[in-house]
């Protein structure tokens, strides 16, 4: 087939219709950012891999399964199908208890713990919780810094709460009033 001058013009300058392809992102922009979603039993193999890589005394898969079955708020943070972290809270009696919050080691110090914690706080607020409590090892400086940064205050110590390789470790008990705290 022979090209005509009008074909060459259209090839070089377009059809005369506005080109709006540049307005369409090449990918779904939401998939580029970490997004929270509910945890399911199908996620537990990936969750337990992160748990075991993160803690010397990790939760068992049975504990995670029990949390799901008990109806606790179990949330994941993922990006393009890759699990980055998870958090679990129980809510009742006007209080929320943060039971576990963990970010994959290769994605720490990127603000993902903050993002997931803010999501969990929002869920607790929607369920009429006035405060959130948690326990953390005194040696977990990164977690303590995050919790203090968002407004958690130390309210007590639980002696010999955590198992440790050299004997039990204490737990620092922290509390956060949910009436005037941070958001995403």
TrEMBL record:
GO function term, MF aspect, one: protein-N-terminal-alanine acetyltransferase activity
Residue ranges of every copy of the N-acetyltransferase domain listed in the record: 34-179
CDD domains, per the entry: NAT_SF (cd04301)
Top-tier EC class: transferase
Top-rank taxon, per record: Bacteria
Protein localization: Cytoplasm
PROSITE patterns from the UniProt entry: GNAT (PS51186)
Active site: 135 (proton acceptor), 147 (proton donor)
Known catalytic reactions: N-terminal L-alanyl-[ribosomal protein bS18] + acetyl-CoA = N-terminal N(alpha)-acetyl-L-alanyl-[ribosomal protein bS18] + CoA + H(+)
Keywords associated with the record: Acyltransferase, Cytoplasm, Transferase
Amino-acid positions noted as binding acetyl-CoA in the UniProt annotation, renumbered to this chain: 140
Short name of one Pfam family: Acetyltransf_1
InterPro entries referenced in this protein's UniProt entry, alphabetically: AcTrfase_RimI/Ard1, Acyl_CoA_acyltransferase, GNAT_dom, RimI, YpeA/RimI_acetyltransf
Annotated EC: 2.3.1.266
GO cellular component: cytoplasm
Family in the record: Belongs to the acetyltransferase family. RimI subfamily.
Function according to Swiss-Prot or TrEMBL: Acetylates the N-terminal alanine of ribosomal protein bS18.
PANTHER family: ACETYLTRANSFERASE, N-ACETYLTRANSFERASE DOMAIN-CONTAINING PROTEIN
Protein name (Swiss-Prot/TrEMBL): [Ribosomal protein bS18]-alanine N-acetyltransferase
Designated gene of the protein: rimI
């Amino acid at each position: 087939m022979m090209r005509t001058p009008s074909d060459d013009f259209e090839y070089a300058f377009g059809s005369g219709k506005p080109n709006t392809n540049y307005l369409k992102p090449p990918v779904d922009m939401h998939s580029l950012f970490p997004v929270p979603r509910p945890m399911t039993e199908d996620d537990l193999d990936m969750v337990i891999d992160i748990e075991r890589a993160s803690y010397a005394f990790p939760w068992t898969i049975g504990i995670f399964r029990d949390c799901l079955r008990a109806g606790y708020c179990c949330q994941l943070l993922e990006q393009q199908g890759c699990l980055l972290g998870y958090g679990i809270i129980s809510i009742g009696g006007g209080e929320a208890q943060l039971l576990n919050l963990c970010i994959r080691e290769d994605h720490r110090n990127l603000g993902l713990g903050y993002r997931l914690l803010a999501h969990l706080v929002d869920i607790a607020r929607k369920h009429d919780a006035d405060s959130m409590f948690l326990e953390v090892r005194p040696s977990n400086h990164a977690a303590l810094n995050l919790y203090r940064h968002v407004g958690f205050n130390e309210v007590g110590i639980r002696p010999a709460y955590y198992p440790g390789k050299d004997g039990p470790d204490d737990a620092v008990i922290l509390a956060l009033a949910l009436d005037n705290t941070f958001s995403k």
